[in-house]
Every structure is written in structure tokens, then in C-alpha cells.
Design goal:
Elements: E1 7-12, H1 21-34, E2 38-43, H2 50-59, E3 64-69, H3 71-81, E4 88-92, H4 98-102, H5 109-117, E5 121-130, E6 133-135, E7 138-142, H6 143-150, H7 153-159, H8 162-171, E8 178-184, E9 187-193, E10 195-199, H9 207-213, E11 222-227, H10 232-244, E12 253-258, E13 261-266, E14 271-274, E15 277-281, E16 284-297, H11 306-318, H12 327-338
Parallel strand pairs: 1-2, 1-3, 3-4
Antiparallel strand pairs: 5-6, 5-16, 7-10, 7-14, 8-9, 8-13, 10-11, 11-12, 13-16, 14-15
């Protein structure tokens, strides 16, 4: 989009992240009016039927929707647009903004607004239907849901994404493995794990993990990941092994492609979440929806050094040959990076 004039509908979550909602709306409105766009805003309360509000605005002729909030706000607006071809833009003012990070959308407010009102491209990404509701990022049972449940809004307002890190560390104390019965596209599986997550995009937003797991939001499939780590050192070793080797060599981790549907059941109820919103408890039933949402994303290489930095990190990781099994192995691998052996002719 360049000079095309649009009718823009902004859905603003006033309690998301750490930004002032009045400041977000003021700066967005000013930029849109300068570019000649018509703009309206709806501030969420948490008690409304947001899907109906978005559908009503679409019926009134708004042709671009903007979700200002975190991943939950983005997927809620996408749910209201599901079945249309109306594009959705992200103004990432939430706590972590995993989907925006995966799509390389700027995390600062002004660059994100310039992307929406200026040059960009549209990308059709897949989604997942859960209980008739569309989600875009991931759905999980176990550790992720417990972390989301324990992370209070007050903590997120005060500490931002560090609140998630603190609470996930706390969850590892006394963490238990659950017995899962899983069905992936009709194939049954039985596993013991601390987390089963069905992903369309990478929750950590670390690009190299997405590459290793072949995670793409627009490839027509999801990935079901089984996490067996039950301690913080074990979890860190799992992540390290994903980074330095293919995930199929990782004893604490398994991944399965989901092209149609996945069902996750447990003997005892296990808490579930999707895109950061608590759903309830298992069972968790997910249906793959190809090309579920049309998102505004940057042009290739639009935002500077990020692609180059990703290439450098990828090359560094490719030089590390071994899978690590213990914390001592991990220390040894870091030592080889920091203090490489010199060649005999050096």
C-alpha cells in the first residue's frame, strides 16, 4: 500500500502491556489522518463479544483492521475477520508480542504505525480452530498454560516480558510429567511430557528455532511439539540442542507435523491455553485452517540489520557439532565458542 486511502478500525486493548492507551490512540490517529485515512477506535473492556463488534465494523465498510495489544488481542480480532479477505495489522503494545516478532513487525510504536500507513505487503497465514474460535500463534497443555495462569496483569505492567520469565522459572520447581494421549491426523500417540504445544508460530520468536523446527505461519500445517524437560537445566539443554542440531536428535523433545487436526487428552485434567488466553483444561482439540488471516507485514529487508544478524547467528550455530546431554556439556560447548583452539600454524 502507498497512497491508497482506507477506512481503518483500531481495536485497542487498554490494559495490555505497559504503554498508555491514550498515547497509543493519539499517535495512531494523528499518523492516519496525516496520510488521509479515516480512522475509528474501539477500546476493549473484556466483557464484550469482540467477534461481533469486529464483524459489525467490517459490515460498515472498514477495509483495514488494526489490533493494538498482545497476541490474544490479535487473534481475537482475526477471529472476527475469519472468512473475509480484510487485512489485519498489528500494533504490538502487548507484553511479549510473539506473533509480531515472528513476522518481523517493528516493536516500537512509531515504526509499527509507519508500516501500517506506508509501504508493506500482505501475508496470508494459517490458523487453528479451537471450540469454534480462531487462534494464530499456538495452543498448549501443561507448562505454558500454568505459566500464563500464574503471571498476573500487575506483574506484566511492572516488569513487561520479564514477568513471564520469572514465572516459568518458578513452574520448574516441582514440575511433573503428565500422561498424554494424542491423535495427530488420525495417528494415535502416547507420551509423558511436561508440555504438549501445537504451534503455528514460534513462541520464543528466536528465528533459528523456527528454522530448525521448520515453523512457518504460511505453510498450511502446524507442528505438535512434545516437551519432556522437567527442570530448568533440562529445559535449557533442550533449547540448546534444538539450536545446534535437528530436533529429531533431541531426547527431551519431539515434533510432529499436523496437516488436518490434533487432539490432546490426559488422564487427569491439565490446564490449557491458546495465544496466551487460558482456555480451561484438557481435552484440547485443534483443527488446521490454512490461509486463515491476511496480515500486514514488512517488505523483504525493510527493517535493517535483522536478516544479516540472523545469517551470522545461523553460521555460528552450524559450527557446533555436538548434542549436549548434561550441563557440563553445555559449558564445554560455550568454552569452545569463546576460546576456540588455535590451528597448528597460528
Amino acid at each position: 500500500m502507498t497512497s491508497e486511502k482506507r477506512r481503518i478500525f483500531l481495536v485497542l486493548n487498554p490494559v495490555s502491556g505497559v504503554h498508555s492507551p491514550d498515547m497509543v490512540w493519539r499517535r495512531f490517529k494523528q499518523r492516519c489522518e496525516e496520510a488521509g485515512h479515516e480512522v475509528n477506535v474501539y477500546r476493549t473492556t473484556g466483557d464484550e463479544n469482540l467477534k461481533s463488534i469486529v464483524q459489525s465494523a467490517a459490515a460498515q465498510g472498514y477495509d483495514l483492521f488494526v489490533a493494538a495489544g498482545g497476541d490474544g488481542t490479535v487473534s481475537a480480532v482475526a477471529d472476527g475477520l475469519y472468512g473475509t479477505r480484510i487485512p489485519l495489522a498489528i500494533l504490538p503494545v502487548g507484553t511479549w508480542n510473539a506473533l509480531a516478532r515472528n513476522l518481523e513487525i517493528p516493536l516500537l510504536i512509531d515504526p509499527a504505525i509507519r508500516l501500517i500507513t506506508g509501504e508493506h505487503r500482505e501475508l496470508e497465514i494459517d490458523g487453528m480452530l479451537i471450540n469454534g474460535r480462531l487462534y494464530l500463534l499456538n495452543a498448549g497443555a501443561g507448562l505454558s498454560a500454568e505459566t500464563m495462569e500464574k503471571t498476573e496483569r500487575r506483574q506484566k505492567r511492572m516488569f513487561g516480558w520479564l514477568a513471564y520469565i520469572w514465572n516459568i522459572v518458578l513452574q520448574f520447581f516441582g514440575l511433573q510429567l503428565h500422561s498424554f494421549s494424542i491423535n495427530v491426523d488420525g495417528t494415535p500417540l502416547r507420551v509423558r511430557a511436561s508440555e504438549v504445544m501445537i504451534m503455528n508460530s514460534n513462541l520464543t520468536a528466536i528465528k533459528e528455532i523456527s528454522n530448525r523446527l521448520e515453523l512457518r505461519p504460511d505453510d498450511g500445517k502446524l507442528e505438535l511439539c512434545v516437551v519432556r524437560a522437567r527442570s530448568l537445566p533440562g529445559f535449557l539443554l533442550m533449547v540448546w540442542n534444538i539450536l545446534v542440531r535437528k530436533p529429531y536428535r533431541n531426547p527431551r523433545f519431539e515434533v510432529y507435523a499436523v496437516t488436518r487436526s490434533a487432539v490432546v487428552r490426559t488422564r487427569r485434567p491439565v490446564r490449557t491455553q491458546a495465544d496466551g488466553d487460558i482456555l480451561g483444561y484438557t481435552p484440547l482439540e485443534v483443527q488446521v485452517v490454512p490461509k486463515a488471516a491476511r496480515l500486514i507485514v514488512p517488505l523483504e529487508g525493510q527493517f535493517g540489520l535483522l536478516p544479516a544478524l540472523e545469517k551470522i547467528s545461523s553460521r555460528v550455530l552450524e559450527t557446533i557439532p555436538h548434542v549436549v546431554e548434561t550441563p557440563r556439556d553445555l559449558v564445554d560447548q560455550f568454552g569452545k565458542i569463546i576460546h576456540p583452539k588455535k590451528g597448528r600454524h597460528d
